[in-house]
C-alpha cells in the first residue's frame, strides 16, 4: 500500500465523518458521528456512551489543533488526510483517540458478555453504523482470522490497527467500512 492507499482510506473516513455533507468537518460533525456510534450501545450503557463521546471529542481537538490552519473551526478533506497520517495515527494519540472508540464499541456490542463478537453482533453493529450488509459479511469473514466463527477483541483491535496504520493493501481491517475503493 502506498501513500495514495492511505489517502483513499482516510478519504472514505472523511466522508463517513462529514455528517452534513458540506465538504468540511466541524465540531458538530464529530459530535454527530459520536452520536451515531454511541447509538450502537444500549441506552443504559452510560460508561461506553460516555467513552465514545469523550474519544470523539479528543479526536476533534487533535484535528482542530493540528490541521485547522486558518482558524475557521473547519477541517478540509486535505487537512484531515494530512492530520490523520501525521498526528491522529501517531503513537501518542492513536490509543486514546481511535482505540478508545473501538474498545467502547466492543464492550457495548458484546451483548452476551462472552468476550467476542458473534457474526450476528458484528452484522448488527456495522449495520447500525450504515455499512452495507454485503460489506459487513465480507469483513466479518476477513476479520475472523482464526476461523472460529467469532471476532475476538484482539482480532477487532488488529482490524482497527490495519485500517489506520497498515501499508498492506490486503489487510483484513481495510474492509471495516467496506472495500476502500467502494465505501459503504
Automatic annotation (TrEMBL):
Membrane-spanning intervals of the chain: none
SUPFAM superfamilies referenced in this protein's UniProt entry, alphabetically: EF-hand
Keyword tags: Calcium, Repeat
Annotated SMART domains: EFh (SM00054)
A single GO molecular function term of this UniProt record: calcium ion binding
Keyword Repeat included in the entry's annotation: yes
EF-hand domain mapped to chain residues: 5-40, 55-90, 97-130, 131-166
Entry protein name: Ca2+-binding EF-hand superfamily protein
Organism in which the protein naturally occurs: Saccharothrix texasensis
Biological classification of the source: Bacteria, Bacillati, Actinomycetota, Actinomycetes, Pseudonocardiales
Amino acid at each position: 500500500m502506498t501513500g495514495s492507499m492511505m489517502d483513499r482510506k482516510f478519504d472514505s473516513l472523511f466522508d463517513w465523518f462529514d455528517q452534513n455533507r458540506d465538504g468540511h468537518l466541524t465540531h458538530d460533525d464529530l459530535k454527530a458521528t459520536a452520536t451515531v456510534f454511541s447509538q450502537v450501545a444500549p441506552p443504559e450503557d452510560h460508561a461506553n456512551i460516555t467513552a465514545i463521546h469523550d474519544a470523539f471529542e479528543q479526536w476533534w481537538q487533535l484535528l482542530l489543533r493540528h490541521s485547522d490552519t486558518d482558524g475557521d473551526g473547519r477541517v478540509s478533506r486535505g487537512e484531515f488526510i494530512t492530520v490523520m497520517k501525521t498526528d491522529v495515527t501517531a503513537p501518542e494519540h492513536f490509543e486514546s483517540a481511535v482505540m478508545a472508540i473501538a474498545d467502547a464499541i466492543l464492550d457495548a456490542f458484546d451483548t452476551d458478555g462472552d468476550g467476542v463478537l458473534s457474526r450476528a453482533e458484528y452484522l448488527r453493529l456495522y449495520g447500525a453504523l450504515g455499512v452495507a450488509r454485503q460489506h459487513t459479511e465480507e469483513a466479518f469473514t476477513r476479520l475472523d482470522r482464526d476461523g472460529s466463527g467469532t471476532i475476538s477483541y484482539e482480532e477487532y483491535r488488529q482490524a482497527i490497527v490495519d485500517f489506520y496504520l497498515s501499508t498492506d493493501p490486503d489487510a483484513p481491517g481495510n474492509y471495516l467500512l467496506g472495500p476502500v475503493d467502494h465505501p459503504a
